[in-house]
Design brief:
This protein has 77 residues and is mostly helical. Helix content is 65%, strand content 0%.
Amino acid sequence: MENRIKETLVELFDGIRRADGDAIASRMALLDDYLVKGRSSLHPQLVHFLENRSYPKALMFLGGEHDIPAGACGGGR
């Protein structure tokens, strides 16, 4: 599931780069679906990022980065 999420995030950012509204909407819908289906098996921090649509942070997390900046919620590792 995490690999599919990572691939979808990459596709989302590509859609944003190309200003492709259909690609953006479809990838966001996929990410929402992955969250619903995988919530119980996903890492809680990844769930948090997906719930809040902190997609850059979700991609950082899936890329193994450890210094993900805290957001407005004040969370962190």
